[in-house]
Design goal:
By secondary structure, the chain is an all-alpha fold. It has one domain (2-398). It is 67% helix and 2% strand. The protein has 16 helices and 2 strands. The chain has helices at residues 2-6, 12-32, 34-40, 45-68, 74-95, 117-135, 143-161, 166-182, 187-210, 213-219, 223-234, 246-258, 282-315, 319-343, 362-379, 392-398; strands at residues 105-108, 113-116. Strands 1-2 form a two-stranded antiparallel sheet. A hairpin with a 4-residue loop joins β1 (105-108) and β2 (113-116). The longest helix is centred in the C-terminal third of the chain and has 34 residues, at 282-315. The chain is globular.
C-alpha cells in the first residue's frame, strides 16, 4: 500500500473527488438497480453491484495508469486516437446494431463486450484540439492555417456522432468551441461558428416540426425521439402525452419527496418507476435518498473539480497541458450539469450519464481515463515532479516551435 501511495502523484484533491464520486455511484447504483435485477437477474442486486464494482475498479486502474504517463506523450497519442476514432464512428453509423432507434455500440471481438464509439471519439477530439491549438500558436489568428484545420476536425467528428447521439455531439461541439476561445482563436471566427451552429439547430428543429411524423418515421433514426422530447419540454405546463412525459414526472416526484435530508440510503420508491434510474436519472434517486443536501454536495464536488482544474491551467507553463486539462474537465462538468438539469426538468431529456456516478461500462472507463490525463498534467504543475528532468525522449516529442508558454 505504501508503495502504491508513493507512486500516486498529482492533485490529491482531485483524487479525493474521484473517490467521493465513486462512493456516491456505488451507493446509488446498488439502490437503483432493483427493478433491473428482478427483470434480468432474478432479483440478484448483488450481481449488478459486483459488475459495477468490477467496471469501476477497472476504470480507476485506467485512471492510475493514465496519470503515470507524462502528459506530453499525449501530444502524439491525440492524433493516433483521432485517426482510430473516425473509422470506428463511420463503422458504427453504418453497421452497428440498431438499439432504441440508434446505432451507438459495436462489439469487441474475442471478449464479446460492447462499447460506445462516441466515448472514445469525445476524448480523442478534445485531446486533438488541445494539440492543434498549441501547435498553431504562432498562426493562431489565421483562418486557413489555424481555424480551418481545427474546425474541420470538430465538425467532422460531431456530425458522425450526432445521428445516434445528438446530445453528446452538442456537448462536444460546445466544449471544443470554449477551448478554442481559451486557445486564442480569432473571436470573429468563433462567432461565425456559433452562428452556423444556431442556424443548423434551427433548421433541424424546423424540419422536425414541418415534416409529418409518418415521413420522419420512414426516414428512421432518432428524428421522432428528438421531436417528442422537444415537445414534452416545451409543453411542461400544458397538455402532453403522458407516455412521453413519464420520465420527467417521475423524476420530479422523486426530487419533491426527497425533502431537505432525504429518505435515507436505499429508501427510494421512485426507482421502481423511473426508466433508467441507475444511469440517466440517477441524480433524482440521489436527491430522493439524500435530499437537497445530497444534491448540493454533488454540485459542489463537480464545481470543486472544475476549480482545481482551472488552478492547474493557470499554473501550467505549457499551452498543451493547460488546454488538455481544461478541455477534458470542462466536458465532464458540462455533462454532469446537463444530467442534473434533465433530472430537475430544466433541460430536455438526454442520454448523458452522471460522470463516475451513473452505472456504465465504456463511458465509465473513458471518464476515468480523462481524469487520469488531467492528473497527469497536475503532476508537473503541483511540484510533484520537475519539468524536463530526465525526460529527454519526451522533450524530443514536444520540443517543437509550436509549444509556447500559456497565458
Amino acid at each position: 500500500m505504501n508503495w502504491l501511495l508513493s507512486r500516486t502523484k498529482g492533485d490529491f484533491v482531485i483524487w479525493a473527488i474521484v473517490m467521493i464520486l465513486s462512493l456516491f455511484g456505488v451507493l446509488a447504483v446498488y439502490s437503483s438497480t432493483g427493478t433491473l435485477a428482478y427483470k434480468r437477474y432474478a432479483g440478484n442486486t448483488e450481481l449488478l453491484l459486483a459488475k459495477h464494482l468490477f467496471l469501476l475498479l477497472m476504470g480507476i486502474g485506467f485512471m492510475y495508469l493514465a496519470h503515470l504517463v507524462d502528459y506530453r506523450y499525449y501530444y502524439g497519442i491525440a492524433r493516433v486516437l483521432l485517426i482510430i476514432s473516425v473509422p470506428l464512428l463511420i463503422y458504427t453509423l453504418l453497421f452497428a446494431p440498431v438499439i432504441n432507434d440508434a446505432r451507438r455500440w459495436i462489439s469487441i471481438p474475442i471478449i464479446n463486450a460492447t462499447f460506445q464509439t462516441s466515448d472514445l471519439a469525445k476524448v480523442a477530439l478534445i485531446m486533438y484540439v488541445a494539440r492543434m491549438l498549441s501547435k498553431k500558436q504562432e498562426d493562431i489568428k489565421d483562418f486557413k492555417k489555424a481555424f480551418l484545420p481545427i474546425i474541420s476536425a470538430v465538425v467532422g467528428v460531431c456530425l458522425l456522432i450526432a445521428p445516434a447521439n445528438l446530445s453528446t455531439a452538442l456537448v462536444l461541439f460546445s466544449t471544443c468551441a470554449i477551448v478554442m476561445f481559451i486557445g486564442r482563436i480569432n473571436f470573429k471566427y468563433l462567432m461565425l461558428m456559433a452562428g452556423a451552429g444556431i442556424v443548423g439547430m434551427g433548421l433541424l428543429i424546423g424540419i422536425l416540426f414541418s415534416v409529418p411524423e409518418e415521413s420522419l418515421g420512414k426516414i428512421g433514426g432518432r428524428f421522432l425521439t428528438w421531436k417528442s422530447r422537444i415537445e414534452v419540454f416545451v409543453n411542461q405546463d400544458g397538455e402532453s402525452n403522458i407516455d412521453n412525459d413519464y420520465q420527467s414526472k417521475q423524476a420530479k416526484i422523486a426530487i419533491a419527496t426527497g425533502g431537505v435530508f432525504g429518505k435515507g440510503p436505499g429508501n427510494s420508491t421512485q426507482r421502481n418507476f423511473l426508466p433508467h434510474p441507475y444511469s440517466d436519472f440517477i441524480f433524482a434517486v440521489v436527491v430522493e435518498e439524500y435530499g437537497m443536501v445530497g444534491g448540493l454536495v454533488l454540485i459542489f464536488i463537480y464545481l470543486l473539480f472544475l476549480w482545481r482544474t482551472i488552478r492547474i491551467v493557470v499554473r501550467s507553463p505549457k499551452a498543451f497541458g493547460a488546454l488538455l486539462a481544461f478541455g477534458l474537465s470542462l466536458s465532464l462538468v458540462i455533462q454532469a450539469f446537463i444530467n442534473m438539469a434533465v433530472a430537475v426538468n430544466i433541460f430536455p431529456v438526454t442520454g448523458l450519464p452522471l460522470p463516475l456516478v451513473s452505472m456504465g461500462g465504456t463511458s465509465l472507463w473513458f471518464t476515468s481515463f480523462a481524469f487520469g490525463v488531467i492528473l497527469s498534467v497536475s503532476r508537473f504543475i503541483d511540484g510533484s515532479e520537475e519539468m524536463g528532468a530526465g525526460n529527454t525522449e519526451v522533450n524530443a516529442v514536444t520540443n517543437t516551435k509550436e509549444e509556447v508558454t500559456h497565458g
